[in-house]
């Protein structure tokens, strides 16, 4: 005998159970993502070119990565103390670093420096990464150099 259609089993159908499970998993993934982003908020380091630093308001003491080319004739070394100018063709920013610079660091080459802005508008680097050519330069630096007209693909090796 079949049951009349008016009499149904209590509970969820198989489709409702699946939808409930999917919705529950989506909530758990969203919550986990939110917790990870909140926990890493202070650890995230944003990349800036000198033009970005000039146009955006970068708070003194905020950890950033500064990328561009070391301006020719700007590097001054006094023992472990180094001062150099990072440029993207549009803007320039004076950076200072205390420590031994990488062997590949030189004027006219790509550089990415990690550190923070000082209250006087200069960049205090805590870590400097030098590139022997633009094969390893971050995508953001390449885009900033192309936008400013300073990109030299003949010296870059790979032009992507």
Fold and architecture overview:
This protein has helices at 14-40, 50-55, 139-148; strands spanning 46-48, 63-70, 76-78, 81-87, 92-98, 110-117, 123-130. The protein has a five-stranded mixed β-barrel. A hairpin with a 2-residue loop joins strand 3 and strand 4. The protein has three helices and seven strands; from the N terminus they run H-E-H-E-E-E-E-E-E-H. The longest helix is centred in the N-terminal third of the chain and has 27 residues, at 14-40. The chain is of the alpha+beta class and 160 residues long. The protein is 27% helix and 28% strand.
Write the layout of secondary structure elements.
Layout: H1 14-40, E1 46-48, H2 50-55, E2 63-70, E3 76-78, E4 81-87, E5 92-98, E6 110-117, E7 123-130, H3 139-148
């Amino acid at each position: 005998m079949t049951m009349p259609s008016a009499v149904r089993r209590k509970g969820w159908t198989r489709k409702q159970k699946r939808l409930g499970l999917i919705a529950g998993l989506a909530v758990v993934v969203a919550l986990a993502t939110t917790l990870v982003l909140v926990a890493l908020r202070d650890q995230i380091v944003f990349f800036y070119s000198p033009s970005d630093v000039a146009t955006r308001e970068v708070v003194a003491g905020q950890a950033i990565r500064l990328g561009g080319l070391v301006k020719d004739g700007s590097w001054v070394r006094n023992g472990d103390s180094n001062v150099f100018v990072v440029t993207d063709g549009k803007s320039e920013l004076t950076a200072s670093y205390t420590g031994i610079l990488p062997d590949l660091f030189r004027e006219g080459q790509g550089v990415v420096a990690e550190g923070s802005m000082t209250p006087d508008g200069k960049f205090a680097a805590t870590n400097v990464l030098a590139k022997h050519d633009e094969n390893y330069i971050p995508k953001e630096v390449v885009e900033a150099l192309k936008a400013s007209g300073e990109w030299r693909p003949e010296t870059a090796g790979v032009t992507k």
